[in-house]
Amino acid sequence: MRQFFLRFVRTLHITRVLVRYRLDDVLYFLPLLKPYQAILRLSPMAWLGPRPQGTFAERLREALETLGPTFIKLGQMLSTRRDLLPDHITQELAKLQDAVPPFPSNVARQIIEAALGKPIEMVFSQFEDQPAAAASIAQVHFGQLLDGREVAIKVRRPGLQRIIDQDLAILALLADLAERYSQEGRRLRIRAVVAEYAKTIRGELDLLREAANASQLRRNFSAEPDLLYVPEIYWDYCASPVLVMERIYGIPIGQRDALHDAGIDFDQLSRRAAEIFFRQVFRDAYFHADMHPGNLFIDPKNGRFIAVDFGIMGSLDDASQHYLAENMIAFFRRDYRRVAEAHVEAGWVPPDTNVQDFETAIRAIAEPVFEKPLNEISVASLLLRLFQTTRAFQMQTQPQLLLLQKTLVNVEGIARDFNPALNIWEVATPLLTEWLSRQRGPQGWWSEIKQYFPQWGLVLPEMPVLLHNILRQAQQGELPLVIRNNDIEGIRQELHHGLQKLTYGVGGTFIVVGLGIIAALEHRLDSPILNLPVWAWLIILPTALWAGASWVRSVFFRRG
């Protein structure tokens, strides 16, 4: 009951904010809320209160910022969904600020002590009360461990879990109603969008998961410390609401003047940004999915990238990797037939898709792009247009590809910002070609052998005995053959019912014909047909038909 009351109060607050920013029209697709619209229109608040300024997109951004962390993060995610929203809205949502006032340092101390189960003085020799950064999910303090190591301490905001759970429940309800009552809601797959978002934000709330993400990324680039550096995680001091990691010193990537003064090579920086992205995607199948300028720093000593904030990570399965590599290489070669075939082979579009029509649609979006110089072609924009086109061929939304497209937009923007003449294709093509040869050539075969050899070692000793048993049963005629298939069972049921209908239909036809014969013979039942009286045929034909149908049913449709 308490949960219901809290959600009701939160719903009223959300409604009030929507009305304040004149966004309440988005709710009136529900028949249930139509009378509510008239009530709000008559409310003094609607015509005496201050009138918000700006376009619909600007008012939407301001409303989301007012509603707090859940809606700020939702808006940031929607800013990457240009397959769902118009460009003018996504561009405005991209301006959403995640900076919020910090919570008191004494509360941060209490959260740390409760999570680690000991006084803060037993963990840190120094703890800076003034936060270094504050965002909607957590804030960061600097400190020093007892052994002298400098650390950054990330602390989750108090009470955030309850608020976000309430907001997600409300969003899930609205999404369900939107798909139930709105054709546009069904087209946009609102429930899937909300479910994807709920999974993302719940992952950000668990700082232990973020710590694991950082450790994995650090391990992936351990052999290339001059390319990307990931701070070390100090696991002894981590819990769900607290993350302690190595403190890094770097220049924020947005401070171009400071980078220039440090002697950083901008051309090398842009190439490294692109190389980091493609190595994450095609070598590791695991990538930092929030690589905006606020999360990236440059080491002034050697110009390497330093990444922070690992709450959102993306991963790709083998099919997704092949899909991307095949498509990007085929696009570069303008082999649109191969692009269409790669979609079908990966299962992203239905197998009965007309490949020729698909190829024509892809050529229509790609040819205008490739008329530009290669250094002006945006890989991210090309992928976005591809995703938008494939929707017409029933390609369902793939969350991992959307995360990747968002990350590619950020990385490509950073790379082009430092070197507008950078040819992304020049950086990507060698890495893609190397990855494909490694997956399909002898090296790929040898990797698969090494991967599955332990499993083969467990199965091989059993093979002679199993093979002997199968051959013995086959020789003695005892080898069972069992075929189970739901589709075959469905066909069998349909044939069964069809045969019954046919039996009744033909039997009825014979009876009607027989009655016609009787009428034609003016009820002379003793008139012979093929040396048999009419009344005998009226008995023989239906009986024979029924017997034949029963035999067919017993042979082909008997239950095992």
Q: What distance separates the N and C termini?
A: 53 Å
Rg, nearest Å:
34 Å
Binned, the helix content reads 55-70%
**Low-confidence runs:** 518-525, 555-560
Tell me, briefly, the overall form.
globular
Summed up, the helix count is 23
What is the number of domains? 4
| Extended strand count | 13
Mean pLDDT level? 77
Structural class: alpha+beta
Task: Supply database-style keywords.
4-stranded mixed β-sheet; Phosphorylase Kinase, domain 1; single chain; alpha+beta; disordered C terminus; 5-stranded antiparallel β-sheet
Structural overview:
The protein has 560 residues and is of the alpha+beta class. It folds into four domains: 97 residues, no CATH class; 119 residues, Phosphorylase Kinase, domain 1, CATH 3.30.200.20; 189 residues, no CATH class; 43 residues. It is 60% helix and 8% strand. The protein has 23 helices and 13 strands. The strands form four sheets. Strands 1, 2, 3, 4 and 6 form a five-stranded antiparallel beta sheet that branches. Strand 9 and strand 10 form a beta hairpin. The longest helix is centred in the C-terminal third of the chain and has 35 residues. The chain is globular. The chain starts with a helix and ends with a helix.
Short description:
The chain has 560 residues and is of the alpha+beta class.
Question: Secondary-structure map with pairings?
Answer:
Blueprint (H helix, E strand, L loop, with lengths): L1 H19 L13 H9 L1 H5 L7 H12 L1 H10 L8 H7 L11 H12 L7 E4 L5 E2 L3 E8 L4 E7 L3 H22 L1 H5 L2 H16 L1 H14 L7 E2 L12 E5 L4 E2 L3 H6 L4 H19 L1 E3 L7 E3 L6 E3 L5 E3 L2 H15 L3 H11 L8 H16 L8 H12 L8 H20 L5 H17 L1 H18 L3 H13 L10 H35 L7 E2 L2 E2 H23 L4
Parallel strand pairs: 5-10
Antiparallel strand pairs: 1-3, 2-3, 3-4, 4-6, 7-9, 8-11, 9-10, 12-13
Helix pairs in contact: 1-8, 4-5, 4-6, 8-10, 13-18, 13-19, 14-15, 14-19, 15-16, 16-17, 17-18, 19-20, 22-23
